[in-house]
Fold this protein.
Amino acid sequence: MRFGYFHNPHDVTKQRDYGELLDEMRELAVLCDRTGFDTFWLPEHHFSVWGRELLPNPLLMAADLAARTQRIRIGLGAAIITFWHPLRAAEDIAMLDHLTGGRLEVGVGRGNYGLEATNLNPIADPNNPPMNVKVFDEAVSVLKAALGEERFSFKGDIYQFPAPGFRADRAHSVDDPAYIDPETKELVKLSIFPRAKQKPLPPLWQMVNSLDSIRHAARQDMGIVMWRPGIGSLKERLRVYREAIRLETGKDQPIGARAAIMRDTFVASSAEEAERIAAGPLMDSLNFANWRGPSIYLDPGETLAAEQEAALKQHLTYEFVRDRSIYFGSPEHVAGKVEELHRATGIEGVIFKCSWPGLSHAHCRESVRRLGEEVLPALNARLAPLPAQAAE
């Protein structure tokens, strides 16, 4: 298995110096690097009037963290490429791959927030799903072509590269036969410089929620990162992903391969201690983002009584999510939950998250330390000798 850590800087007071938030993130990245985590993941969010998501540029942050760490990979989790010009995204990602020494993982997403889209790229508004998906799919295609091909072209409904009709400008003519149409002399191919360090391109991941988004990731031959489904739902998603990969690419990969799941996690001396310290901040965060309701925590075919469902749409409870989607407890308990997950599903990766508004950095850091120094060694010892026993 591969183990990651996800950190989303926040300050709901809106009073702290931003440099302190950066220093805390750096401290966590160095700690994860030292204690055996495989990847440190970074989000992208804009205009956070709530103070809960305060990292607008994960690429710049990734370059900073790569310079301070030795071996851990740096993950974009995710770059919202519907808000970027796809060629600039490709150039920046290729440059970042060199700056990290080839330690870059590229996660991409469509974006969830209309506040962001309407101010950065209105045609990618997630409140208009068909157009949002089209922008995303074309942006991914451009990104892959630019990163993976020495010379490329792309023609879609939204993007066309090279731009049609270009032959020369006042500074230079274009006369390289590898790039021009020999009859019209029009530029028909482009290259980005530098190309990515990792060949043929850095690992690509899509942040997914629905089965449709999982199938899209398979069509684009990307790995998948999921956020909160329980084991039953996760099994279904992994089955759909494997079948879609086989259909789209012809690859017959093991179930659970190229797939990871994020888990809200807090490691303490006991379950009671973990709940006492961190349950309040966790549940405040989950309820702030409860716009999908309790359905994302349910297994396939599971239903709730109407009264319970209505209540949980208004307010999720710790008791409801505890055994479905979070790992709170002692190192032994958390290691056991991860082992259970892997044995049941075969999933390749788990990404832990230990920080929410209202929890002190000291408590977050201690949970991460215990994960790295106590949980991960136990898991590596338990899981190395035997393959996952996942049901097909």
